[in-house]
Specification:
- 35% of the residues lie in helices and 26% in strands.
- By secondary structure, it is α/β, with parallel strands linked by helices.
- It folds into two domains: 182 residues, Rossmann fold, CATH 3.40.50; 70 residues, no CATH class.
- The strands form two sheets. A six-stranded mixed sheet has the order 6-7-8-3-9-10, sandwiched between helices.
- A hairpin with a 2-residue loop joins strand 4 and strand 5.
- The model has no long low-confidence stretch (mean pLDDT 90).
Length: 257
């Protein structure tokens, strides 16, 4: 199967005047094209650092990362990054914000602008194209941020707790929307989250990281019944609850906690 992402023995050391800190050690895994992988683990296990390395925002101390068979040596339009905050420009309309990435990359053609507007329509936002971010809810703004990311047609999407600032109902709605959109477009994605339920409901596979230093502790394949359902419905399946207990125990919990 074609690999969208490959990490080989990625290690990260942060050095200050006082000490050197080993943040990540020997991280190795592949992500096949079209797969949705979640990274979960306690604070301090280096999840966001790992995403930053994959995105080319910081270089790893050793090891290497390839995306679409290209060695990552810096930021690339092949990789889209969606964060906790939407970072929309308040003085620009929703349509203009959706095209912002294309504009910055110097790739904003009329065809690609129409593509961004089509994505807004798919997200139920076309009627708001001339609105400004302050006029939209948090969930709507995150949908615009997703459109801005997808408009770049990246090979890989990195999602760093994109729903953590939203209310629970909006979060569940966006989980369904994101999963259905990425599946329909055959996109590869890596999600960082603290929410075990979110990881199970959205993913094809979960990697559990251990801290100090960050390293892969366990890998869980998501059962087909869960993968076939949208996240909201997946939460009701018996397979979901069984897997939740198994992963929770990896965090040091017990089935009754």
């Amino acid at each position: 199967m074609e690999k969208a992402v490959r990490l080989e023995n990625v290690t990260q050391v942060y050095v200050t005047e006082e000490r050197a800190t080993l943040a990540l050690q020997g991280i190795t895994f592949d992500v096949p094209k079209g797969e949705f992988v979640s990274l979960i683990g306690p604070s301090g296990c280096g999840k966001t650092t790992l995403l930053s390395i994959i995105a080319g925002l910081i270089p790893s101390t050793s090891g290497q990362v390839t995306v679409a068979d290209h060695l990552v040596q810096g930021p690339s339009s092949k990789v889209g990054y969606m964060l906790q905050q939407d970072y929309l420009f308040p003085w620009r309309t929703i349509a203009d914000n959706a095209c912002m990435g294309l504009e910055i990359a110097g790739e904003l053609t009329e065809e690609k602008r129409q593509g961004a507007l089509h994505l807004l329509e798919e997200m139920g936002l076309l009627a708001f194209r001339d609105y400004y971010p302050a006029q939209l809810s948090g969930g709507m703004r995150q949908r615009v941020a997703l459109v801005r990311t997808l408009a770049m047609e990246p090979e890989l999407l990195l999602l760093d707790e994109p729903f953590s600032a939203l209310d629970y109902q909006t979060k569940l709605q966006l989980e369904d929307l994101v999963v259905e959109t990425l599946r329909a477009k055959g996109k590869t994605a890596i999600l960082v989250t603290h929410d075990i339920s979110e990881a199970i409901a959205m993913s094809d596979r979960i990697l559990v990281l251990a801290p100090n230093p960050g390293r892969i502790r366990q890998s869980f394949e998501i059962p087909e019944a869960i993968r076939a359902a949208v996240p909201f419905e997946a939460r009701e399946l018996p397979e979901f609850h069984l897997l939740f207990r198994q992963i929770w125990q990896e965090f040091g919990g017990t089935p009754h906690e």
